[in-house]
Write a structure and sequence with these properties.
The protein is α+β, with helices and mostly antiparallel strands. The chain has two domains: about 120 residues, Diaminopimelate Epimerase, Chain A, domain 1 (Roll), CATH 3.10.310; about 120 residues, Diaminopimelate Epimerase, Chain A, domain 1, CATH 3.10.310. It is built from six helices and 18 strands. It has an 18-stranded mixed beta sheet that branches.
Length: about 260
């Protein structure tokens, strides 16, 4: 009976059971999309990554329990961690991933893994009808990125205390809603991310959201290197460095489960 190596990795954290958990499946050959979606539903994590070797680098696809997505940071971080950990890639090699968002890369630094992602602009827009009621908070500013709605709130406290109406958020015609505010402590900004429309009520730490948050806060704070904190119950830090139309996302990861998926 065929098996596929499968890992449960906590990303954007150095502590087990914090940060954002992702499943990583190491394939040796392509598998049907329907099968990958079924595996992701079975894993029931915010994202499951499927990695397959290519002549140059790796193919990487991401699935929530409901849909395939175009961009995911924490599952990319988890995939890079597994490839180095398992000796599939040399420890100091740069990894290249072919994805639905083009070629992405990952490198190891002294203290973290650094991902090279596209910087995604968020353009000011009118708040969708019912947004304030869905969030239970009044937006200070609203903008739309390639995938998600970005909502700036009045304070870090407002972000941390949000208790949104997920049923109402699910009806918005966006992948997800990034809520954010300037921070007063060790971080430059805080955020939370809600995506009930794609099967993720609240994502613990969202790398792709920081592809939007980096240029957004860079313009407002006049900085290109910042530290963000995603204030979900699990929580996690993401270091961001804006480099023109790209952004470096930095974080740590650790494996909490190693096993095999039986292929039927």
């Amino acid at each position: 009976m065929a098996t596929v190596p499968c890992f449960h990795v906590d990303a954007f954290t150095a502590r087990a059971f914090r940060g954002n958990p992702a499943a990583v499946c190491l394939l040796t050959a392509s598998r049907p999309t329907r099968w990958m979606q079924a595996v992701a539903a079975e894993m029931n994590l915010s994202e499951t990554a499927f990695v397959r070797p290519l002549a140059r680098g790796f193919s990487l696809r991401w699935f929530t329990p409901k849909v395939e997505v175009d961009l995911c940071g924490h599952a990319t971080l988890a995939a890079a961690h597994v490839l180095w950990q398992e000796g599939i890639a040399p420890k100091h090699a740069e990894l290249g991933f072919e994805t639905r968002s083009g070629r992405l890369s990952a490198v190891r630094t002294r203290s973290a893994i650094e991902l090279d992602f596209p910087a995604l602009a968020a353009r000011p827009c009118k708040a969708p009808s019912g947004l304030a009621q869905a969030l239970g908070a009044t937006p200070r500013a609203v903008a739309m990125s390639r995938h998600d709605l970005l909502v700036e709130l009045a304070s870090e406290r407002a972000v941390r205390e949000l208790q949104p109406d997920l049923a109402r958020l699910r009806r918005l015609r966006v992948r997800g809603v990034i809520t954010t505010a300037c921070a007063r402590r060790r971080w430059d900004f805080v955020s939370r991310f809600f995506a009930p429309a794609v099967g993720v009520d609240e994502d613990p730490v969202t790398g792709s959201a920081h592809s939007v948050l980096a240029p957004y806060w860079s313009e407002r704070l006049g900085k290109t290197s910042m530290l963000g904190y995603q204030a979900s119950p699990r929580g996690g830090e993401v270091a961001v460095k804006l480099r023109g139309d790209r952004v470096a996302l930095g974080g740590e990861a650790l494996t909490v489960v190693r096993g095999e998926l039986v292929v039927r």
